[in-house]
Design goal:
Ig_E-set, Immunoglobulin-like, Gal_Oxase/kelch_b-propeller, 44 strands, oxidoreductase, about 35% strand, about 550 residues, globular, single chain, disordered N terminus, 6-stranded antiparallel β-sheet, binds 2-acetamido-2-deoxy-beta-D-glucopyranose
Length: about 550
Amino acid sequence: MSTTSVLCFLLCFISQQCMFTSAAGGSWALLQENVGIAAMHMQLLNNDRVIMFDRTDFGPSNLSLPNGNCRNDPNDRTLKVDCTAHSIEYDVLSNTFRALTVQTDVWCSSGAVMANGSLIQTGGFNDGEKRIRIFTPCNNKCDWVEVPNGLAAARWYASDQILPDGRMIIVGGRRQFNYEFYPKNTAPGLFSLPFLLETNDRGVENNLYPFVHLNVDGNLFIFANNRAILLDYVKNVVVKTYPTIPGAEARSYPSSGSLVLLPLKNIQAPNVQAEVLICGGGANGSYTQSLRKKFLPALDTCARIIITDSNPEWVIETMPLRRVMGDMILLPDGSVLIINGAASGSAGWEQGRNPVLSPVIYRPNNPIGSRFEVQNPTTIPRMYHSTAGLVRDGRVLVAGSNPHVYYKFTGVLFPTELRLEAFSPDYLNAQFDNIRPTIVAPVNQVILYYSQNQNVRFSCTGAVIQNQVEVVLVAPPFVTHSFSQNQRLLVLGNNKMTVLSNNLYNVEATMPPSRILAPSGFYLMYVIHQGIPSQGIWINLKQR
Ligand SMILES: *[C@@H]1O[C@H](CO)[C@@H](O)[C@H](O)[C@H]1NC(C)=O
Ligand SMILES: *[C@@H]1O[C@H](CO)[C@@H](O)[C@H](O)[C@H]1NC(C)=O
Ligand SMILES: *[C@@H]1O[C@H](CO)[C@@H](O)[C@H](O)[C@H]1NC(C)=O
């Protein structure tokens, strides 16, 4: 142990400020006591601001609209005149927020950030079900712009994915067994998807917010209920049907498990492998049982499958904690954070019990049996309608939770939650500062092109181990209802490293070779050294 670390050790003893558990298990910070709304949906934009919103028919929120503005909505089922906000813009860098205005109901909707950096939000409920809403990042002046009839069909509980050609696809939603595109096609606007009818458990559904990811072959991986397909969305043909998950329990809403596309590696190779991991969910029957006040223990299993295999099989692993309504977040170091949710019951109003306060980190490259690490707990339950998302500095914002039809602060087990927290994974501990890289060049907001060899210059106070340096790209997702739409992490190839001078290094990173592997747009780029990430910078990945 070096003299300084001995000193730190002693100092923290004396000041009693050290959490010994934080050496393994991350730490929590309360960022805001009250952001005014319950963040049901969350998206990070390339100006380090996070757009959050809930629903317009929640009744009054805790945040007034600016300048005495009110929303007059004769169609709203709860408040025809509402002078409170249901959306905010949170600025990560200054830890401040401001109210935004949505005009129609955004409840249980979906979204994606287009290549130009604007957030396109799709659908919702009631008067919002066919709306498109556009939010273009700016410095404090912008607000939502609504497009009536922007969608061909009503979309409530749909999932979106950005496509290689720059459009986005909107898949499913309640009683919608089809998909469509934005910008909207001229006829036919809708493409039927019988898989969504086949996976619809009557009465319970269990196939809402389908888990959709763009596969490395250009097809769309779609998981709903307890099984998945690979869809050629251009020809509208199912090209592969995956086996049913062993145990056959439903994993999508309201039996909400969560799913990630694991980090894509060796992306310059001819046959890139893609794998998905799905964790937790409601036990069979939990939705119906919880309506009768019987809260079944949630699932404690994860299922992992190589979706590019010719004969793919699910591999089951057991989590240290049961979880339904969890969120799964890809961290820059390639691990998966499993956070939020409950240990029993189901998604739905008042239908969850036993909050799971401890996140779990899953390390996909560890040998099976040593992949899960339980993290330090928060004190705030994050039940139905909670969210979490990575920000540029490597922390994870955690917000929301409102399992009630309206805002309810008293007389309930899980009051409407307006507090905003951040979870800092271990890699942010000061004890790793001497091996932490700091990106020196290029600068934030650089434009980079497909297949380009980019020099990434970084500093590091301690010695750098040559073969322990990686550069990764992370696409910030649209987060809602336990699914991070468009979440994608790519480990860039090459990694040729040179020492420039004392503490200054250069690593060459080759950008993704195609828009199929990485659709154009804004990504966070991190340098990772010995598993410790730098702060990210925004890059704008473009076609030459
Ligand atoms: C704001 O929230 C608190 C609970 O945190 C509640 O008691 C209060 O009535 C709310 N105030 C307004 C103006 O909505
Ligand atoms: C991005 O494109 C959309 C149209 O799809 C447009 O409304 C928006 O203003 C554009 N954003 C920027 C930043 O140019
Ligand atoms: C779920 O429960 C239903 C009714 O109790 C039963 O018919 C079905 O087989 C069960 N499914 C699984 C996967 O256990």
